[in-house]
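Side project, low priority. Logging it here so it doesn't get lost.
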Amino acid sequence: MSTTGQVIKCKAALAWEPGKPLAIEDVEVDPPKVHEVRIKIVATGVCHTDWEYLYGQGMKVRPFPLVLGHEAAGVVESVGPEVTKFSPGDKVIPLFLPQCGECERCLSPKTNHCRKNWANMQVGVLADGTSRISCKGQQVYQFLGISSFCQYTVVPDTSLAKIRCDAPLDKVCLLGCGVSTGYGAAVNTGKVKKQSSCAVFGLGAVGLAAVMGCQVAGAKRIIGVDINPDKFEKAAVFGATECVNPKDHKKPIQEVLAEMTDGGVDYALECVGDPAIMTAAFESTKDAWGSCVIAGWTETGMMNVVVEKILMGRTLSGTYFGGWKSVEDVPKLVDDYMNKKLKLDEFITHNLPLDQINVAFGLLKSGNR
């Protein structure tokens, strides 16, 4: 492309400081360096983690200014030296979880937790300790090493999945975070079994994807739990057999679910990121074999667990990106969507231009999504 090797000037939704709305700014995106790829972002989702970092309390401190966004899809604009697996024009999904394919963790079937460039990407820079985005002469940090709220961005070649050329980018972008996380929490981490009972706490994108995963796994009873009853109809579309609003009951929700299921569910999936809800989810599972998977994200919260409830045979586990090996599994999830084995269109409630990003955040927080 004509921009290869040149600085690209484009628009980005920039967070100058915590707690303030994003500002649409002109930014400069440098060419990719060794083992890096510059991509044109075509579509990006708005994830609760983005909102939480800007306005919430559950995230570790990261430097500002930065460009948020980590759930996206785009097209390769140019590649840096020593990049062999990508070419200009490739359709891709950037990944906040890398997969180098060479480290001990990548070679193990037990985990997807590759740590290639991990420490740097967590604080918003790439392998050399710098960002590729700047504004008004100032370095702008890349949230989780991605920054998809920018029209162009640069990511490591180990944090990028090449996908089929006929995939609609405005749909498959959702596989960059929320849908993959919730779906994988059920089918990978939880390993939900046929004819089982499940409770999914939180019916946002992650929770709805967990519901879908439970249905695909063959669960007989799938109970959606949320304080917003407006989400119940959509939950049924993804496979929920019934839904419960904790506000409709005087008893704690874990006791309500235990009564509904003769002692508790086989599987509980927490998709909110609230430690109190994590505890409720864990306590809603049946003793002897109940399993709880934590998929909701918080970096600073502490969960309360009564040890006896573990001693009685329950298991508690966490999941990151749904347990998927990112580079190799995301293209397979795209194939599943294209082959109508996986829903994505049904997750989308609004389509907005970049300059309406603060409106999107408002819709996200209000639950109208």
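Brief comment: Residues 326-338 form the longest helix (13 residues).
Revisit when time allows.
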